[in-house]
Specification:
alpha+beta; Neuraminidase; 4-stranded antiparallel sheet; 36 strands; disordered C terminus; repeat; signal; transmembrane helix
C-alpha cells in the first residue's frame, strides 16, 4: 500500500513540476508612436518605436484578447509577427477598421522601412486581414493621398475612413516640412479615395485626436498647427453633409492645451482625453480631462483605484465595453523631457473613473475547461495497481511530462534568443516626431 502511495506521489510531483515550469508569454518591449485597432474583442497593436534601448522601429503585430480576463500588470499578449509576415518596420502611422465585415485593419502613412533602413514602401495604404493574418496593398481608384504622419483616422458605420491633415516632412522625402490641410475619405467597400470639402477647412495640424460621434460629426481636439490649439473653439467635420464648423466649448479655464494625447468616446457622449505634452513640453495638467459632447462642456474628474496610468505621450487609447485601455507611450514628466517608452497598459472604468488592477471580461464564464473527450462534471480518476513497481501507464505519464517540459524549456530559450537577435538587427536612427520647439514661442 505504501509503495502505491509513493507511485501516486511521483506522478503528482512530475505533473505539478510541469505546471510550474515557465511558459512563454509574449512580452512586448516599451514602445510609442504605434497604431491600434479593435476587431471584435481583440485589440491589435502594430509597429511603434523604442528609443530607450536599441533605437529601432518595430515590425510587430500582436493582440490582446478582451474576451478573456487578465491581470492588468500581466496581460496575455499574442504575437503574430511571424505568422503575419509584416513587410515593413513602421511608426507614426494611423489605423482604422473597415471592409464589408469590419475584419480588415487599414494602416495609413507613417514611416515604413525595410531591413536596410530604406523607406522603400511609398504607398499610402496597407491592409491587414485579421482572418488570415496577411498583409497586402489594396488597389483603390481615385488620387492616392500624399504620404504623411502624425495624423488620426476614424471610421464610420458605412465603411468609410476619414483622415485629416498630418505632416509631409523630410523624413518622408519632402524638400521642406509641410502640414497638409485636406480631408481624405477612404472607401473601404467601394475601394476608392475621395476628398472632403475645403470650404472652411482649418489649418493643417499634427498630433491631435479625432473622435467621431454617433451623429457622424468628427470632433478634433488639441494638437499643433503652428501654435497650440484652443480647447474653447473646436474644429468639427460633419461626415453626412461634408461641412466644416467650429464649436464653442466651456469650462476651459483650468485646462492646459496639449499634443500627442489620446481620446476615446463613451456610450453617453463623453470624450475622455488623456496624456500628451503641454506648451513647455511637460505633462499637462490635469492629465485627464473630459468633454461632454451633449453640452460641449469640459471637466476634470478625479480618479480612484490602481494601478493609475503613468503620464505618457504618443500612446494609444481604445474603449471596449466600459473600459478605456491605455497602452504604451513615451513617459513624460512635469520637469523634464520624455524619458523613454513604457511597456505597460492601464485600464480605466469610464463609468466610475476608477483604475482597475484586474480585467474581467463580460464574455468570460466560470465553468472550468474539461479534458477532451469527457462529459458531465470534471472529475479526476486514478488507475494503477496496489502492488508491484510503477505501472507502464504511470511510467508513460512521467516520461511524457518530463520530455514535454524539457521541450517547452528548449523552445522558450530558442525563441527568446532568436527574438533578441531580431531586435538588435533592426534599423537604427529611427526618426523623431516632428515636435514643435519647446520652451519657446511656437513657430508660425
Amino acid at each position: 500500500m505504501k509503495r502505491f502511495k509513493n507511485q501516486n506521489f511521483l506522478i503528482l510531483f512530475f505533473i505539478s513540476l510541469s505546471l510550474i515550469l515557465p511558459v512563454y508569454s509574449y512580452k512586448p518591449l516599451g514602445t510609442y508612436a504605434h497604431s491600434t485597432a479593435l476587431v471584435d474583442n481583440k485589440l491589435y497593436v502594430i509597429g511603434g518605436i523604442d528609443l530607450s534601448a536599441v533605437s529601432v522601429t518595430f515590425k510587430n503585430v500582436f493582440y490582446l484578447d478582451l474576451g478573456t480576463s487578465f491581470k492588468v500588470e500581466s496581460p496575455s499578449w499574442v504575437d503574430l509577427s511571424t505568422d503575419s509576415s509584416t513587410p515593413f518596420y513602421s511608426g507614426w502611422t494611423t489605423a482604422a477598421v473597415g471592409g464589408s465585415d469590419n475584419k480588415i485593419i487599414y494602416l495609413f502613412g507613417g514611416v515604413q522601412y525595410d531591413v536596410s533602413h530604406t523607406d522603400a514602401y511609398s504607398g499610402f495604404t496597407w491592409q491587414f486581414d485579421t482572418t488570415s493574418n496577411t498583409w497586402s496593398q489594396p488597389s483603390f481608384s481615385g488620387t492616392e493621398p500624399t504620404r504623411r504622419r502624425e495624423m488620426d483616422a476614424v471610421s464610420d458605420a458605412n465603411g468609410k475612413i476619414y483622415i485629416f491633415s498630418g505632416i509631409y516632412d523630410t523624413v518622408l522625402g519632402a524638400s521642406v516640412n509641410k502640414r497638409i490641410a485636406d480631408m481624405i475619405i477612404v472607401g473601404t467597400i467601394d475601394k476608392d479615395y475621395a476628398y472632403g470639402s475645403t470650404t472652411g477647412i482649418p489649418l493643417g495640424r499634427i498630433d491631435y485626436t479625432a473622435t467621431i460621434l454617433s451623429n457622424g460629426v468628427i470632433v478634433y481636439i488639441g494638437g499643433w498647427d503652428g501654435g497650440m490649439l484652443s480647447y474653447s473653439s473646436l474644429s468639427t467635420y460633419d461626415t453626412t453633409t461634408d461641412t466644416w464648423a467650429n464649436v464653442t466649448a466651456s469650462g476651459t479655464s483650468s485646462l492646459e492645451t496639449r499634443y500627442g494625447h489620446s481620446a476615446v468616446l463613451t456610450t453617453d457622449g463623453r470624450i475622455i482625453v488623456y496624456g500628451g505634452l503641454n506648451f513647455n513640453g511637460y505633462t499637462p495638467s490635469p492629465i485627464l480631462i473630459v468633454l461632454d459632447t451633449n453640452t460641449f462642456k469640459w471637466s476634470s474628474p478625479s480618479t480612484s483605484g490602481s494601478p493609475e496610468a503613468e503620464p505618457v505621450i504618443y500612446h494609444s487609447a481604445d474603449i471596449y465595453d466600459k473600459y478605456m485601455i491605455i497602452a504604451f507611450g513615451n513617459l513624460t514628466s512635469t520637469t523634464t523631457d520624455p524619458t523613454g517608452p513604457s511597456s505597460q497598459i492601464y485600464i480605466l472604468d469610464v463609468d466610475k473613473y476608477n483604475w482597475i488592477s484586474s480585467y474581467t471580461s463580460s464574455a468570460t464564464t466560470t465553468t472550468p475547461d474539461k479534458p477532451n473527450g469527457t462529459s458531465g462534471p470534471y472529475t479526476s480518476t486514478t488507475s494503477g495497481s496496489d502492488s508491484g513497481g510503477l505501472s507502464s501507464k504511470a511510467i508513460g505519464i512521467i516520461v511524457a511530462v518530463c520530455v514535454g517540459s524539457v521541450g517547452v524549456c528548449i523552445l522558450i530559450i530558442a525563441a527568446l534568443c532568436i527574438g533578441f537577435k531580431k531586435f538588435v538587427k533592426k534599423p537604427k536612427d529611427t526618426p523623431q516626431p516632428y515636435r514643435p520647439p519647446q520652451h519657446q514661442k511656437w513657430a508660425a
